[in-house]
Amino acid sequence: MAVSTRTRRIPPSRSSIQAEERLRLIELIYAAAVAPHLWSRFTDELSLCLGDAVVLFHLRFPRVGSVDARAVATGLSDDSTELYATHFSERDPLLPWVQSLRPGSVVSLHELVRPAELEASAFYREWMRPFNLLPNGVTAALILKDDDAILSLLRVFRRWGGADFRAQSLQVLQELTPHLQRALVVNEELARTEKTRIAAATALERMPIAMITVNARLRVVATNEAARRILSDADGLSLHHDGVRARLRADDQVLREALQQAVFGGRRAVLRLNRHSSRRALLVKVEPADNALHMATLYLSDPDRNAPILLQDLQQLFRLTVMEARMVLALIDGQRVDEAAARMRVTIQTARSYLKQIFAKTGTSRQSELVRLIMSSPLPMP
Questions:
Q1: What is the DSSP-derived secondary structure letter of residue 382?
Q2: Count of alpha carbons within 13 Å of 288, Cβ hemisphere only?
Q3: For the chain, first and last CA: distance in Å?
Q4: What is the distance between the alpha carbons of residues 329 and 323, in angstroms, rounded to a whole number?
Q5: How far is CA 34 from CA 2, 182, 203, 327, in A?
Q6: Residue 347 C-alpha from the chain's centroid
Q7: Would you say 293 and 358 are in contact if contact means Cβ atoms under 8 Å apart?
Q8: Which spans in the chain are helix H?
């Protein structure tokens, strides 16, 4: 569980909280909605407003088997907060009452659970009392629920010797709870969006086709792993201070014109970029990426660099034997049947028998059709 805590001595509670302090708390709530590290600032400020209060805010309440619980606290050590999540959340006698509440409810729990009953519990003796938390000074705000399960819970505890802020904390939490509900929904939406973005970026990174996106000044703004390999070779295409440049002047002029037409004219183009080495030319397609932002993407293929295909993947996808899968890999490498037979140390007749079985299992009838099927499948992806 992710835990962030603050422990400090704070001035005694005052009789009322000023409007400026409430506004500051609300500002922090919405700031934390987009910058979650600020939740610890919020618990600090809330503790400050309520005097020497202990604030425990479960942004995501711990559940059995869950690994994504998150909490911030002021006035509790890391160990005590972690101990609650891993051990005492299941033994907390206050939770059944909280679970029965509607989202947005704010209560003083001593009105629901008698202090004597709480003091008799292992939860009080082993968790609350060691940290000097009073049994009759707990105010709770149930922020969010999922069916009957608590999603988010904010609690304020009174210390032994601390000011009695129960009425004050009720009023403050009642004012803050609607803002906390909205902020946590935004938190979750942003978290889901970020996870989706990361998943999409990871997928683009793994694509076997190289992709380079440029802006209106033809400067590179994004690449994937395959593109970075090509650029690092600097063979046919390289990265310069003014963007990507082709090796030959004639190729470079065609490339720059194609990029300009894609960025500002919305036109696509295909071209070949010759290389310094004896390797075959890079094959390039230029596409408009975003007309409003004036961006374009280059899709590049290196005919001399194929992504490796795993033997076991071939076997699993087409139900091939090991020898049949080895035969397919040899054909993809451009070998003839007799060359593949020699490579696998079998007779040509045996190799042809493998090929016949491969055709039947893949629904193909020619070697060219087989190779096209394999290379258009997800198998060449790294």
A1: -
A2: 14
A3: 33
A4: 10
A5: 17, 12, 25, 54
A6: 52
A7: no
A8: 19-34, 39-49, 78-83, 95-99, 115-119, 122-123, 166-206, 225-233, 249-265, 311-318, 322-332, 337-344, 348-362, 367-375
Phi-psi region of 217 (alpha: psi -120 to 50; beta: other; left: phi over 0): alpha
Which pair of tokens denotes residue 89? 């959340």
Q: Which of 21, 22, 41 is nearest to 31 (CA)?
A: 41
What is the per-residue pLDDT across 34-51, written as a single tens digit (0 to 9) for each?
999 999 999 999 998 888
19's CB contacts (< 8 A; 6+ apart) are none
What is the enclosing helix (H) or strand (E) of 33? helix 19-34
- pLDDT tens digit sequence for 68-102: 678 899 998 888 888 888 888 888 888 888 888 88
pTM, two decimal places: 0.67
Supply the pLDDT for residue 166. Answer: 65
Contact 279, 294 (CB under 8 A): no
> In 147-209, which ranges are E strands?
149-159
Looking at per-residue confidence, does 116 or 359 come out higher?
A: 359
Q: What is the pLDDT of residues 113-135, one digit of tens each?
A: 887 888 888 999 999 999 888 88
Residue 210 identity (one-letter amino acid): A
What stretches of 321-367 adopt beta strand conformation (E)? none
Cβ neighbourhood burial of 187 (10 Å; 0-12, 13-18, 19+): buried
Residue 15 — pLDDT band, cuts 50, 70, 90? very low
Query: Domains plus CATH for the chain?
Result: 2-195 (3.30.450.80), 207-301 (3.30.450.20), 311-375 (1.10.10.10)
User: Is the pLDDT reported for residue 355 higher than 90?
Assistant: yes
- d(CA 100, CA 148) in angstroms, rounded, equals 8
Helix ranges, 245-284 (H): 249-265
User: 335: which 2 tokens?
Assistant: 């070998």
